[in-house]
Amino acid sequence: MSNTMHTYARLPVSFTHGEGAWLWDADGRRYLDALSGIAVCSLGHAHPAVTQAITEQAGKLLHTSNLYGIESQEALAQQLCELSGMSSVFFCNSGAEANEAAIKIARRYGNARGYTVPKVIVMENAFHGRTLATLSATGNPKVHEGFAPLVEGFIRVPFDDADAVASALENNNDIAAILVEPVQGEGGVHIPSKGYLTALRELADKHEVLLMLDEIQTGIGRTGQWFAHQHEGITPDVMSLAKALGNGLPIGACVCNDKTANILQPGSHGTTFGGNPLACRAALAVLTTMQSEQLVPAATQLGAQICAGFSEALKDTAGILNIRHLGLMIGIELDRPCAELVGLALEQKHMLINVTAGNTIRLLPPMIIDTEQVKLIVASLSALIKDFIK
Ligand code: PLP
Description:
Helix content is 36%, strand content 18%. By secondary structure, the chain is an alpha/beta fold. The chain has 2 domains: 15-46 and 294-389, Aspartate Aminotransferase, domain 1 (Alpha-Beta Complex); 49-292, Type I PLP-dependent aspartate aminotransferase-like (Major domain) (Aspartate Aminotransferase, domain 2, 3-Layer(aba) Sandwich), CATH 3.40.640.10.
């Protein structure tokens, strides 16, 4: 009998250790991780640079609180601003918290403009987290179930439809922000049309609302750019980050540009643990390693290799609706529900994968995978998919 709350439908395996893209269970069985703890362990497991940074820092200082200066927090903020061209960072402990900070910024921005209930435009099928405000922003009725009343102030429009955003902006005069994922991850790996984010940037400027990008899953190199919006050469007003930033050490960040940097002031937001020395040292090691090992461009190449492999292997397989990817964010959409593939991949292929939106196999492999591991992912999974479809 488990004493942990039954909030997860867990698979019947647990791991004792890992190295790179490999994980081992207590019986010594080895598994290939094609999910990275849901886009978290981009450097793989037990990366020596992260281990060293954490170990060193743990022996020095874990926590002093945000009542005092934190050198590694300053250094990390500076690096994130350099990489993004933005100017100020609030650190927290998770993705949902990073989005909470973003939503609070939108509220303050709207309140300062005199809106009684400032609105945030959000997308159908979006996922932004499990706190009350972020689940209200999420566009999935299952996530809302049983949590009424939801937080008010969200207007939902279809994803990848800039005209729908334009008409929402024209029909409401109390909109403070647009919040959107550059690629919808939980929603089924949906990559919007080219020009979508640029159109949203133009609309946000025209109507003087904030463009807020949830880069929690897409950020930190996963799509082949440091941040997915850089594929379009735009900059948001607010960007939320988490997941891969700490390679497993919990850390989130709400990154602002000059326009939004000073909206939150002492007394208006805060957190005990956010940006503590341990998490920041881990994140600094992640960014340095991604740079020195050139993992961001590698994500583009590896993603293309994997998708070319699947396209070839599955070209004559009926039932495959679509194979899509941006860097190492990969979706294989089937014409039928396929959640059971997760258990089958684990049992039969010793491989960690995910199925999202019911019928889309989602792969988020570590950015350090090698060509042999790419081949193994393609060979094992295409065999499994073919079997499943038969
Ligand atoms: N936003 C996006 C796009 C996500 O993918 C997730 C998690 O899957 C979140 C927010 C929530 O992050 P967390 O689980 O760290 O709160």
